[in-house]
Design brief:
Elements (H helix, E strand, L loop, with lengths): L4 E4 L9 H13 L4 E5 L8 H11 L2 E8 L10 H21 L3 E9 L9 H20 L3 E5 L12 H11 L4 E6 H7 L3 H8 L3 E6 L14 H10 L6 E3 L4 H4 L3 H5 L9 H24 L6
Parallel strand pairs: 1-2, 1-8, 2-3, 3-4, 4-5, 5-6, 6-7, 7-8
The structure holds manganese (II) ion.
């Protein structure tokens, strides 16, 4: 396994003011990560020039992630919301292109919220139709779109890897991929290893973390099996660590994510550990999967 290792910017900062951008990029590089994942909730507020230059100086790559809100839901039956969602996704792809991002991922296909009704087939069809157009624009800049599989409290549409693969198949664009996250898989998948294997070549982005979104290895997720599954399918895309503290992110994200308990105080320590833990898991997985013993 030789994947690029990423870190979610929200470990360091809540927003993307110039000061926050500089701190988040520099800290991510300082701790030896290959890329930073930036929240794309408000792309028009980003200082694109400063961001691009600082990334170049720091020598790290960048990806972007977001969840649509209810007013911009491309799975809505309200055409105004669908139009607003498509316009927002197109804006994010432009910003991603301008800062040199390789991936745009997250809950791109619906709103990031607790729905009170199941997804409808008309809503799914609308989402797929819009995503095909967004994918075309993204492809022109070599950008991959990752459909993040999240738990039932964050979308009503794609809760399992199987649903995500079906969605990607129906969009039918080579740059529309599945984005898996261990935290969400732990809630929804019957068998997370089987889910990774079934996703196979459709896997385009991967989030690590824990069952409580704190220090890796301190929750209930069998991370060793996850990394072995990634090695077995030959996954070569980014592996990004995600963890949240309400002290850093503030509102509204604390409320949306439900961060009612703090799992860490010292971001430096958390991130240093995540890097070591991920690397050692990757080395172990590579060896476990490639060294098949045979009878002499
Ligand atoms: Mn995630």
């Amino acid at each position: 396994m030789n994947n690029r290792l990423g870190l979610h910017a929200n470990v360091w900062v809540a927003g993307w003011s110039d000061e926050e951008a500089i701190r988040a990029i520099d800290k991510t590089a300082e701790f030896g990560f290959d890329l930073i994942e930036i929240s794309a909730m408000a792309p028009h507020l980003m200082n694109i020039d400063l961001t691009r230059k600082r990334l170049e100086q720091a020598g790290i790559g960048v990806t972007m992630s977001l969840g649509l809100d209810a007013e911009k839901d491309i799975s809505s039956l309200d055409p105004d919301r669908v139009r607003a969602g498509e316009a927002h996704l197109m804006d994010v792809v432009s910003t991603a292109r301008d800062i040199g991002a390789t991936h745009v991922c997250g809950i791109l296909y619906s709103a990031f919220q607790k729905y009170s009704e199941p997804a409808t087939s008309a809503g799914v069809a609308s989402s797929i139709e819009v995503m095909a157009r967004v994918a075309e624009k993204a492809a022109a800049s070599g950008i991959t779109l990752g459909m993040e599989v999240v738990n039932r409290y964050e979308t009503n549409m794609i809760n399992t890897a199987t649903q995500a693969v079906e969605y990607c198949r129906r969009v039918g664009a080579p740059n529309v991929k599945v984005h898996l996250d261990v935290y969400h898989m732990n809630i929804e998948e019957a068998d997370a290893v089987a889910a990774i294997q079934a996703t196979g070549d459709y896997l385009g982005y991967f989030h690590t973390g824990e069952s409580h979104r704190g220090y890796m290895g301190t929750g209930s997720i069998d991370l060793k099996s996850m990394f072995q599954a990634l090695a077995r399918i030959g996954y070569a895309g980014p592996i990004t660590y995600e963890s949240f503290s309400s002290r850093v992110v503030g509102q509204p994200l604390t409320g949306i994510l439900g961060i009612w308990r703090e799992t860490w105080e010292d971001g430096d320590d958390l991130v240093r550990h995540a890097k070591m833990y991920t690397q050692s898991q990757m080395i172990a997985a590579r060896n476990a999967v490639s060294r098949k013993s045979s009878l002499a």
